[in-house]
Amino acid sequence: MDRRNFMIIGSAAAVAGYAIGKFLPKSSGDKLYLRPPGAVDDFDDLCVKCGQCVQVCPYHSINLLDIEDGYSSGSAHIDAKERGCYLCDLFPCVLACPSGALDHATKVVGDVKMGVAVLSDTAACLSVKRENLSEAGVKHLLDRKAYNDREEALKDKIKGKIGQICDLCVTLCPVGDSAIAMSETNLPLIKNGCVGCGVCAEVCPAKIINIAPKMSYDEIYKEKK
Residue 170, class by beta-carbon neighbours within 10 Å (0-12 exposed, 13-18 middle, 19+ buried)? Predict the structure, then answer.
């Protein structure tokens, strides 16, 4: 195939892909999916599905949605139950984004507004029940392949908590006690510093923490304050 025909076919494929994307069912992606830090309000329209953020994430937290996700297919998201966002220094995902879908003004943790954590079945919390963290409870985290020193260090922190009263959500939160802390009843307390990174949802052995994407602390907790 000569260069001219290659360019024609390549251009046709790009146009076809764009057209197919436009006819896929529209999803409210910004509300349904947890996006990487710095995601703008019109992320779904601006994300060019290049995967650059996926490639540079040192914790392998970011993935691309499948075609079954409609118009959002191919766009970047985070499944917090699988791997939360550890709010890396310098935000490599933001720096790698070429389209403005991730705002380059996102420079510090305080700039991040991914969502907010919400606890469901609080009676199942190991800390409330004063149960020690077992190796079996975190086996899925420890069995995951580590590709770099950061992921190895994370595993070491988790291993160090085995045999102690579970407080992984508090200990591993990359924001700190302005986002989550233990209450007097040994229940994790979500605070207004929570940015919805999802780490607490990932590491909770009882799987009782969820992230409400694009929601603010006040929207979820204003009636409880």
Answer: middle
